[in-house]
Amino acid sequence: MPATKDNVQIAPPDGKLGVLIPGMGAVTSTFIAGLEAVKAGWALPIGSLTQLATIRLGKRTEGRSPRIKDFVPLARLEDLVVGGWDIFEDSVYEAALKAGVLEREHIERVKEPLQAIRPMKAVFDPNYVRRLSGPHVKQGRNKMELAEMLMEDIENFRASTGAARLVMIWCGSTEVYHQPAEVHQTLEKFECGLYRNDPDIAPSQIYAYAALKMGVPFANGAPNLTVDIPALLHLARERHVPVCGKDFKTGQTFMKTVIAPALKARMLGLTGWFSTNILGNRDGEVLDDPGSFRTKEETKLSALEYILQPELYPQLYKNFHHVVRINYYPPRGDSKEGWDNIDIFGWMGYPMQIKIDFLCRDSILAAPLVLDLVLFLDLAQRAGMRGIQEWLSFYFKAPMTAPGLYPEHDLFIQLMKLKNTLRWMRGEDLITHLGLEYYD
Ligand SMILES: NC(=O)c1ccc[n+]([C@@H]2O[C@H](COP(=O)([O-])OP(=O)(O)OC[C@H]3O[C@@H](n4cnc5c(N)ncnc54)[C@H](O)[C@@H]3O)[C@@H](O)[C@H]2O)c1
């Protein structure tokens, strides 16, 4: 790996990397428990590209396929230190027990490090998450004061852990749907809005503002707008901070963005796609509120339209029916069941059906994405990349893109983009899959 080939200078990942997480519920506690289990050597980081995947370099005949983590300089798992905020005072150990994702036996094996992490007081507004209320919440005269308190938390965390760099990733509850408003349009308006307590500024946006002001990269694991507004994108670019989002692509949408490209690749038509889920964790309870569900529905619905491009293929994809439902059903806890009924048609218009029944575990699928995003965002920052990181679309249901650019949802295009970005960083040839040279 001759360093001289690099297209960008990448600072080495020296020192500790602090991971700051607003929302320490099911996903966060599962992520931290897994991280500790991997560090202790009794679990594998399954589902994580940064830890397990290889990347092919050069021609297929060269036999060069290093692990991604050996190809680009990523922070080591031993160097991660985690902290965060929640509206409940529970330590991560207690949160993991309540979340009910992991077996008690597994949680007990990492009890000590999990118990040591206690959330800081949250910035919370019940108008944005109607189904929850908790006691562990900051009070301030206005939203700017709350942002300043978060910045103080960030600084204290940095000082107490000795972290050399920080990354923030939103794993808090899904906030109610809201469209970008005037206050989101410029940084000046946004900052005035913070002082004026503008109701259109969501708690997640106060966290994102605090992070960006402190030069901390920000990822959004939920579908809320959060950092995807002109004011905060401007701040990210101005401060040279990378950002990405929105909404971890884990269960049903993950499957959708695999199956839909396959149908399109074979020019098979679609008349309808009915998706329904039962889910019994706290996330399911929050999504039972129509306002929060609307936010989720928006991100879940958009993927198919973008992949199938009905405007280019009206005979195949015009007016297909797409329905997405999430039903809160407590007995299942975090073990979600997602059904898809897909009505397709083939040669001469003959109808066929595909049924998917995915008995997945939400947080088990999301935890490795948290790890990868943390490590890649930190890499991006050390490589001097700022603003929206479209190459991380791979991880999201509603990938953020430059204004006017449609998002790429096809999982395999997203993966190619991610790997080509890593190749580009290190000055390796991009892989086009042309391959004519093998037959010359
Ligand atoms: N596969 C997945 O699990 C998956 C996939 C996509 C997106 N998500 C999103 O990730 C987020 C977390 O999911 P989860 O299953 O861990 O949910 P969860 O309900 O278990 O955890 C969310 C936590 O956020 C806390 N919270 C809410 N508002 C907060 C605020 N303003 N500040 C600090 N803490 C706050 C809640 O108290 C709760 O502990 C949700 O928004 C969910 O929609 C999850």
**Structural class, from helix and strand content?**
alpha/beta
CATH class of the largest domain: Alpha Beta
In percent, how helical is the residue content? 25-40%
Number of helical elements: 16
What small molecules does this complex bind? nicotinamide-adenine-dinucleotide
Structure keywords:
440 residues; alpha/beta; Rossmann fold; Dihydrodipicolinate Reductase, domain 2; 2 domains; seven-stranded parallel sheet; four-stranded mixed sheet; binds nicotinamide-adenine-dinucleotide
Q: Describe it for me?
A:
With 440 residues, this protein is an alpha/beta fold. It has two domains: 3-248 and 364-425, 3-Layer(aba) Sandwich (Rossmann fold); 252-360, 2-Layer Sandwich (Dihydrodipicolinate Reductase, domain 2), CATH 3.30.360.10. Helices cover 39% and strands 17% of the residues. The protein is built from 16 helices and eleven strands. The strands form two sheets. A seven-stranded parallel beta sheet has the order 3-2-1-4-5-6-11, sandwiched between helices. Strands 8-7-9-10 form a four-stranded mixed beta sheet. The radius of gyration is 22 Å and the shape is globular. The model has no long low-confidence stretch (mean pLDDT 94). Bound molecules: nicotinamide-adenine-dinucleotide.
Topology diagram in text:
Elements: E1 16-22, H1 26-40, H2 49-52, H3 68-71, E2 80-86, H4 92-99, H5 104-109, H6 111-115, E3 120-121, H7 143-161, E4 163-170, H8 187-196, H9 203-213, E5 218-220, H10 230-238, E6 242-244, H11 252-265, E7 269-279, H12 282-287, H13 290-308, H14 314-317, E8 321-328, E9 335-345, E10 351-361, H15 362-382, E11 387-388, H16 411-425
Helix pairs in contact: 1-4, 1-15, 7-8, 7-9, 8-10, 11-13
Bound molecules: nicotinamide-adenine-dinucleotide (NAD).
